[in-house]
């Protein structure tokens, strides 16, 4: 009987060690499959290397590819908390992307976050065929954001450098200069003003992101030169005349 108990204990110990090893050594490709599933294919993680705990890969959206690396702290998982540290991949330019993320239930806390990406990602994330293409580079940064609808707190800064929109349907492009967005978290939304410096148009408006709903943008566009016939013709094709300017809005679902 004692021998049987020892055999059963040894078998259980071997099974436990094997289970722990299987989880600890789980390949990063499992994360890649989850990214595709969560985003409906709008995002994917290519060339994933390492384990789910410490790995690197290429985050792809449309034609944009962003090298990324991450590390997950194992011990906080014992108390139901996910602590994720995102850092630039060794082959990436310094400073992007990075973030310290803590997830407990429905609450997500983000600290010291920054990422830069080509504006072409916007069209890729819309999930549908769009009648425009975006150019330039976007930088998003946040010191601290606590996302726990309906009690959100924090602020996000967005700078779109060299902003451009190309409109193949009318064979035209519009230079928007440098666009800035100062977004504040409040209730179930992240929202704030949109403005620009330079470009063919003066841009003023607001952007709103509602949790698990959509991103909605409402803009007023005013040509910097009233006699710019070409630009007014383009605006007439995509926006609605409103006094001395043009109104433009669109909504991108998040689910």
Spans where pLDDT lies below 50 across 5 or more residues: 3-26
Q: Termini separation (Å)?
A: 59 Å
Series of H and E elements:
HHEEEEEEHEEEEEEHEE
SS field, number of helical segments: 4
Radius of gyration: 23 Å
Instruction: Classify the secondary structure makeup into a structural class.
Output: alpha+beta
Give the strand order, joined by hyphens, for the main sheet: 1-2-3-4-5-6-7-8-9-10-11-12-14-13
How many β-strand stretches? 14
Which range does the strand content fall in? over 45%
Helix content: 10-25%
Mean pLDDT: 77
Explain what you see.
The chain is built from four helices and 14 strands. The chain is elongated, with a radius of gyration of 23 Å. Helices cover 19% and strands 53% of the residues. It has helices at 2-24, 29-39, 121-125, 229-238, and strands spanning 44-50, 54-61, 64-72, 82-87, 98-104, 107-118, 133-147, 153-167, 172-186, 189-197, 201-210, 214-223, 240-242, 245-253. The longest helix is centred in the first third of the chain and has 23 residues, at 2-24. It is α+β, with helices and mostly antiparallel strands and 255 residues long. 17% of the residues are buried. The model is unreliable at 3-26 (pLDDT under 50). It has a domain at 106-253. The protein has a 14-stranded antiparallel β-sheet with strand order 1-2-3-4-5-6-7-8-9-10-11-12-14-13.
